[in-house]
Specification:
- Helix 1 packs across helix 2.
- The chain is extended.
- It contains three helices and five strands, in the order E-E-E-H-H-E-E-H.
- Strands 3-5-4 form a three-stranded antiparallel sheet.
- It has a domain of 54 residues: Orthogonal Bundle (Arc Repressor Mutant, subunit A).
- Strand 4 and strand 5 form a beta hairpin.
- By secondary structure, it is an alpha+beta fold.
Length: 117
Amino acid sequence: MTTKPKAHLRRQVSPGSSPHRKSATLDEPPAAEPMGRVIAGMPREVIGSGGPMPIPKRVHRKVAAGYIGTSLSWLDKSRLKGDGPVFLQIGGRVVYDTADLDDYLARCRRQSTSQGP
């Protein structure tokens, strides 16, 4: 024995449309295609937005972790140990300057696995 869904739970569908498709209206502009490098916590650059969106000079911990390609946990631990990138503490908030992150990445550059830090 099968039961029908209750009337108040049924999806209202207009005649001639599919219940599984969302119909587009003429008032909605077409969605822009994403492009460019995606950094965790930062919005994507979008075609037609007047050019790429600049990365701010100072970024939050989550964005900084994505910028250098590490996890937020690693970045927090390296800050405590003192072997991570230079940071700024403004009040209780920790932020990173993108120039300092670039300097840290340059210091991490190696030619061989036998090279030490």
